[in-house]
Design a protein that fits this description.
- It is a single chain.
- This protein has 309 residues and is α/β, with parallel strands linked by helices.
- Helix content is 29%, strand content 18%.
- It has one domain: 3-Layer(aba) Sandwich (Rossmann fold), CATH 3.40.50.
- The strands form two sheets. Strands 4, 5, 6, 7, 8, 9, 10 and 11 form an eight-stranded mixed β-sheet that branches. A three-stranded antiparallel β-sheet has the order 2-1-3.
- Helix 8 links the parallel strand 7 and strand 8.
- It binds S-adenosylmethionine (SAM).
- The site of S-adenosylmethionine has 17 residues, from helix 5 and helix 8.
């Protein structure tokens, strides 16, 4: 990763804001969040282990402010510490970023429970947990290439009692040539992680063009393999936690141009977040939206009839 020269990160931020075509107040909120590192907000996903009527032992915000929020997700009030409770250690809920929940909420558009699902970049397990919160897992594969992270993924899956789930560690190209088909593939891609700055996490070089271009290249490679795993009529959800259009809208535009038979799907609950940088359905969350640090998601559908069962 390359950084702008010391003392010039302001220029990189400015260039990012220009590429995002932000309005003045949006730019102000983003820059403030990047400097203050105070835009992070947690959410908890109730796990398959938690009984149907379970509620977490801390106060939660009203979900009315977040109409896209999936049913088994709660937002702890600011000041609550959900990881401190015994129920967390017992796997009753999984704690993750609110913005990550926003990305995973795009799955609510699916009209059928996936019969076979693959989470290609799964550790530590947040998107898989969100899938399990919205649909019964019938035959799920949670894949992670990094062995240490795969260990954490396995622990989380066991703790939260994920049913019908196998943990694997293949590279995306190995999946692409495996001949295995899934009616849902999740690609929560490794990215430059610019939104981490808004949580107060140092991420040197994340705004620089080398980091952004390098990640975009890796994302295109992962996606070209991932699309080969999507069954006719199946879906692929792409998401990142970075702002750069090169890693988001442009990667999706590349895939839609390069791969036949895929279209981007409208997600009615996310209409208000339609990206102005895409001429297809693609959604962008930024700190000024008040749901955490931000993220990007785009749901693709492969044409054809879903006959995976
Ligand atoms: C954004 S994180 C995934 C977070 C996870 N989906 C969740 O919600 O908890 C991206 C993951 O991709 C993995 N990764 C890194 N390089 C990769 C590659 N070339 N192909 C596939 N996965 C990769 C990382 O190890 C990391 O676990």
């Amino acid at each position: 990763m390359s950084a702008d020269a010391p003392g010039t990160s302001g220029k990189a931020e400015q260039r990012l804001c220009e590429r995002l075509r932000l309005r003045e107040h949006e730019e102000e909120v983003l820059l403030h969040a990047m400097h203050a590192g105070d835009a992070g907000r947690q959410a908890v996903v109730l796990s398959p282990r938690a009984p149907k009527d379970y509620e977490p032992p801390f106060s939660c915000a009203s979900s009315e402010q977040f109409p896209w929020l999936p049913a088994r997700v709660r937002i702890p009030e600011v000041g609550e510490s959900p990881t401190r409770h015994a129920d967390h250690a017992a796997g009753m809920y999984y704690v993750l970023d609110l913005s990550s929940c926003w990305e995973g909420s795009a799955l609510s558009t699916l009209t059928q429970t996936p019969q076979r699902s693959l989470d290609l970049c799964a550790a530590p397990g947040g998107k898989t947990m969100l899938l399990a919160a919205q649909f019964e897992l019938r035959d799920h594969t949670a894949n992670e290439v990094n062995a240490a992270r795969r260990g954490i993924l396995r622990q989380n899956a066991e703790l939260c009692g994920l049913p019908n789930t196998r943990i694997t560690g293949l590279r995306p190209d190995q999946w692409g040539s495996s001949g295995e088909l899934f009616d849902l593939v999740l690609v929560d891609a490794p990215c430059s992680g610019q939104s981490l700055l808004c949580k107060g996490i140092k991420n040197p070089g994340c705004l620089g063009s080398a980091a952004v271009q390098g990640n975009a290249k890796r994302q295109r490679g992962i996606l070209l393999a991932a699309v080969r795993c999507v069954a006719p009529g199946g879906h692929l959800l792409y998401s990142t936690c970075t702002y750069a259009p090169e890693e988001n809208e442009r990667v999706m535009a590349y895939i839609l141009r390069r791969v036949d038979g895929f279209t981007a799907c409208e997600v009615p609950t996310l209409t208000a977040y339609q990206s102005a940088l895409a001429d297809f359905p693609a959604y962008r969350l930024l700190p000024h939206h008040g749901a955490g640090t931000g993220g990007f998601c785009c749901l693709l559908r492969r044409k054809g009839n879903n006959n995976i069962i």
